[in-house]
Design brief:
This protein is α+β, with helices and mostly antiparallel strands. The protein has helices at residues 13-26, 84-102, 107-110, 117-135, 142-158, 167-182, 186-205, 231-247, 255-265, 269-272, 306-314, 337-348, 365-377, 383-394, 399-406, 411-417, and strands at residues 3-9, 32-38, 44-50, 55-64, 70-80, 280-281, 286-289, 300-303.
């Protein structure tokens, strides 16, 4: 539940500082917010979010629809800090609104929400999600980055379309026909439709549109790629990692140890690739990660097996005192571990072999297409996590215990990683 505090008075730096301290003392850890309104400029205020401490200058007014029903419309002016310059800038903007209203200017035109897909995404949807990240009500800013890539493709298709225009449904239908004919980009279409649905829901809440035209849109049937690696293949990948580590002369051959640890623990690649030595306690056989290092923004504590302890104790970086990373070199994580992954898969002989040698910019178009299609058909490092969870469930371990080992927030997520077999049934 969000606690709200409201203070009406002169909008000054001193009042902001006082209200911020009051907000922190009233609710230091829980989600809360405070509004400070300026009595000299009606509608001008500053919103403070807790626990992030983010301050946003806002202008709020009451508008009436054709039936006389009133609703509050809020316009974000900009982020402010505890200094006179940025605060004065916010006050000047508010006074400008007030002066235009006093001479008969209709402020509803200024407060009008953007209606095109592109402008609504950037000005409203993205802004609200950034506030949620700062306020702690959303996992992390990775969700914004994830949406940004899909939004770019979405805007390229329908960015100039008005949210009230039913033509948007037809454009998505045409997009679906293209995906079916080409036989690819199914996931991009599915995620773009999901993002558009969220934009519609927010637009309806804000009064920008009244109907979700994608409510009846159906994604094309698509058989998802198999994300489960059989135990026999996992064993082959494990042996290939050992071979690669001992015979390869490549700089990043130590990254093979990371893949072995993924096989043993089922951890996420993003959390292992920059694993710090300070997070590893080999004497107690545990790995402890702080909340800012994890996907779910919660602290993790992994119990290491005897095999994992031996692996970490013998990895190359442990003999490098000036290297703080377990799988890095000179404090730098491996950003190209997928290249090493495909070289390891080449050694297994189970998934074909990529063309030997040659940089991407020196390859022919046919060679690039062949390599891309082969990589797309191969297992990903993340599939080791799917296999770890599925094999654990096949061994009779309860879903609750597997969720705890996989560091999932709830068992519903763990269920998505289970690839149904007779043993699990």
């Amino acid at each position: 539940m969000v606690t709200k505090l409201t203070h009406t008075g002169k909008l000054t730096v001193r009042n902001l500082q006082r209200e911020y301290r009051k907000l922190m003392s009233f609710s230091p850890k829980n989600k809360s917010r405070a509004y400070i309104w300026d009595v000299s400029v009606p509608g001008l205020g500053v919103r403070i979010l807790n626990p992030s401490g983010t301050m946003t200058a806002i202008y709020r007014m009451r508008v009436y629809d054709q039936n006389g029903k009133a609703s509050a419309v809020e316009k974000t002016i900009g982020r402010v800090s505890l200094d006179v310059e940025s605060l004065q800038q916010a006050i000047d903007v508010g006074i400008a609104y007030f002066e235009k209203r006093s001479v008969g200017f209709n402020p509803a035109d200024l407060m009008k929400m953007p209606t095109t897909v592109e402008r609504f995404y950037h000005d409203v949807y993205k802004q609200e999600h950034q506030d949620k990240c700062l306020n702690g009500t959303q996992k992390s800013e990775r969700t914004i980055v994830r949406d940004e890539g899909i939004a770019t493709r979405l805007i390229r298709r329908v960015g100039n379309i008005d949210l009230k225009d039913p033509q948007l449904y037809d454009l998505f239908v045409n997009w679906r026909h293209e995906v079916v004919e080409e036989g690819k980009n199914h996931q991009t279409l599915r995620k773009a439709a999901q993002l558009m649905q969220r934009i519609y829901r927010m637009g309806i809440r804000r009064g920008v549109c009244e109907h979700n035209y994608l409510l009846d849109f159906k994604n094309p049937p698509h058989k998802p790629r198999n994300m489960y690696i059989p135990p026999s293949d996992v064993a082959s990948i494990y042996k290939a990692c050992l071979t690669y580590k001992s015979t390869s002369n490549r700089l990043w051959k130590r990254i093979a140890d990371m893949f072995i640890l993924k096989i043993l623990l089922g951890t996420r690649s993003g959390e292992l690739v920059d694993l710090r030595k300070t997070e590893v306690n080999l004497d107690e056989a545990i790995i402890t990660m702080a909340p800012e290092r994890t996907k779910t923004r919660k602290s993790y504590r992994f119990k290491l097996t005897e095999m994992a302890v031996d692996l970490l104790r013998n990895t190359a970086s442990m003999s490098e005192p000036n290297n703080p990373l377990v799988f890095g070199i000179d404090g730098q994580p491996c950003t190209s571990y997928l290249h090493e992954w495909h070289r390891i898969l080449d050694i297994t002989g189970l998934y074909g072999k990529l063309p030997a040698g040659g940089r991407w910019d020196t390859q022919t178009k046919e060679e690039r297409i062949f390599a891309s299609e082969m990589k797309a058909s191969r297992p990903r490092p993340h599939d080791l996590r799917h296999s770890f969870i599925t094999n654990a469930r096949e061994a009779g371990i309860s879903r609750e215990d597997v969720a705890l080992a996989a560091q999932h927030s709830n068992t519903n997520t763990t269920e998505l990683y289970e690839h149904v077999t007779d043993e699990i049934k």
